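User: Just a sanity check before I run the rest of the batch. Below are the structure tokens for the first item. I only need the designed sequence back.
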């Protein structure tokens, strides 16, 4: 692992090491040298993740498909690297505090490096994201395992302490993830049912001919669309609460 130069091969090699042999990776990970290389690593992994989402959207796998699939595909490639970078700084700040409370004397840069390279698992988790609940559980458990390894190999903390702390995080995170995904799936299903029972599909067909309408007709159709959408959201929320 070179921390002086960057190329795509370096990112791929580091990602492979994190995935296949995290103990060796974190044991040999440089703890200084600035944030540029781990930051680039996160951005590249974010771009790869966005590319996978784009492909899934185009071929219709997962929830991100349908009439907006093309827009989602293009947006994912642009947005995900940015989201990954922002998320890496926030995540590193949180885990930095956790490690401090556990007794680590390492700097924020070290916490950021540990967090940044843990993003290597993101594309793999995304590849199985169409399997209900499994992907979220694997992501939580795998992330906590990597932080457990980093606690021992980088921060030189006691293995038992790290096992307890990140074991608790793993259980809580997995349970919360399952609960939130269940709620999201329920809402999505009820929203789709409410959408199919509404007049919105017909309104969409009319909106396609906007250039042939007068301003008054356009305003009327947009008003119908907003009313229909509001009704759909209310119906979906009501059914979700009942379930």
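Assistant: Here's the designed sequence for the first item:
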């Amino acid at each position: 692992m070179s921390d002086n130069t960057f190329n795509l091969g370096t990112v791929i090699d580091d990602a492979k090491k994190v995935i296949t042999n995290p103990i060796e990776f974190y044991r040999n990970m440089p703890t200084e040298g600035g944030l540029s290389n781990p930051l680039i690593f996160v951005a590249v992994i974010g771009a790869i993740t966005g590319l996978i989402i784009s492909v899934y959207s185009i071929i219709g796998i997962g929830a991100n498909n349908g009439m907006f699939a093309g827009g989602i595909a293009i947006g994912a490639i642009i947005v995900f690297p940015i989201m990954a970078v922002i998320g890496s700084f926030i995540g590193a700040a949180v885990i930095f505090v956790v490690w401090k409370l556990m007794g680590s004397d390492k700097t924020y840069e070290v916490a950021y490096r540990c967090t940044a390279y843990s993003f290597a698992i993101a594309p793999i988790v995304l590849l199985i994201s169409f399997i209900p609940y499994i992907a979220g559980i694997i992501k939580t458990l795998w992330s906590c395992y990597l932080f457990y390894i980093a606690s021992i190999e980088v921060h030189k903390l006691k293995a038992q302490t790290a096992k307890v702390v990140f074991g608790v995080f793993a259980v809580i995170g997995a349970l919360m993830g399952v609960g939130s995904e269940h709620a999201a799936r329920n809402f999505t299903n009820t929203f789709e049912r409410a959408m199919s029972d509404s007049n919105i599909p017909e309104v969409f067909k009319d909106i396609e001919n906007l250039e042939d309408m007068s301003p008054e007709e356009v305003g009327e159709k947009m008003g119908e669309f907003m009313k229909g959408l509001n009704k759909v959201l209310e119906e979906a929320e009501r059914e979700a609460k009942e379930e």
